[in-house]
Every structure is written in C-alpha cells, then in structure tokens.
Write a structure and sequence with these properties.
- By secondary structure, the protein is an alpha/beta fold.
- Helix content is 54%, strand content 21%.
- It has five helices and five strands, in the order βαβαβαβααβ.
- The protein has helices at residues 13-29, 49-84, 98-109, 123-129, 132-139, and strands spanning 4-8, 32-40, 88-95, 113-117, 144-147.
- The chain has a five-stranded parallel β-sheet, sandwiched between helices.
- α1 (13-29) links the parallel β1 and β2 (32-40).
- α1 (13-29) packs across α2.
- The longest helix is centred in the middle third of the chain and has 36 residues, at 49-84.
- The chain is globular, with a radius of gyration of 17 Å.
- The two termini are 22 Å apart.
Length: 148
C-alpha cells in the first residue's frame, strides 16, 4: 500500500523508538524510507552594519554545526534500515517551522506516508509548547501515522 515513507527524526528516545518500529513496517510493505531532520533556520536577521557582519559569521558557524549534527542523527537512524535491507535515503534542510519542513520534505520526496513519533506531552506542556506531530496532522495532505 505505502511505497515511500518519510520518517522525521530528531535523535530523541521517542524518535529512535519510532525508527525501530518503522523498519519492520517498511520491510513488510516493501516500501523505501526517507529519514528527515529539520535543521533550524538561522538566516532570519534584522541586524545591519558591523553587527550584521558579526552575526552572519555566527550564523554560518551555527549552520555548519547544525549540518554536522543532522548528519550524525541521520547516520545513526539509518543503521537499522541497512541491517534489515530496507532502502533508506537521508534528507536534511533548514526550516523556520519544523512541521512545515516535515510536510515539505514529504512532498519533495513524493512520499505517500509520514510515519512519526508522538512525544506524548500532556497538560500545560502540550498547551504551551504545542506539538509538531499535531501540526503535521492538521496541515498535511499526505497521510500521517503517529507511533506512540
């Protein structure tokens, strides 16, 4: 039924658990997987002149660290797919809003399912912090499977 699954990951325990589960799901479905990590977009700035130059250098350094971190997270998440013989791609790009990045990645890759973790926040934390999963569920035209 599903042929290409997007799996957003942030390296958390919840994401690692989801990755372990999606390996068998994808193998049973005969689907390929794209692992996705949304890097923070640090390019928005309102500083000019010398402050802008200093800030742009800091942003450039932070972007390099973010790319390095994303590569590390994706490489770790890729291991179980390789071991199981499931085709796995890796993708990371900067996004101002994580949920928009997830939906954009799924659209760009032609995914027919987004398989993601629910971090299980409840009460005031869920109210104040919101939920990327909830936002993806609300805005995505691509089916979303939430693993908890």
């Amino acid at each position: 039924m599903f042929k290409h699954i997007l799996v957003p990951t942030d390296g958390s325990e919840f994401s690692e658990s989801t990755v372990r589960r999606v390996v068998s799901f994808a193998k049973e479905a005969g689907a390929e997987v794209t692992l996705f990590y949304a890097r923070p977009d640090l390019t928005v700035t309102g500083y000019y002149g010398e402050a802008g130059l200093a800030l742009s250098k800091a942003v450039e350094e932070n972007e390099a660290h973010a790319k390095e971190y994303a590569d590390k997270i994706l490489a770790q998440a890729e291991i179980p797919f390789k071991e199981a013989g499931v085709k796995c791609n890796k993708l990371s790009f900067a996004s101002l809003l994580v949920y928009e990045g997830i939906i954009d990645a799924a659209t760009r890759c032609g995914c027919d399912l987004i398989f993601m973790a629910s971090h299980g926040r409840s009460g005031i934390k869920a109210l104040l912090l919101g939920s990327e999963t909830q936002k993806v569920l609300t805005h995505s035209k691509i089916p979303v499977l939430v693993y908890r």
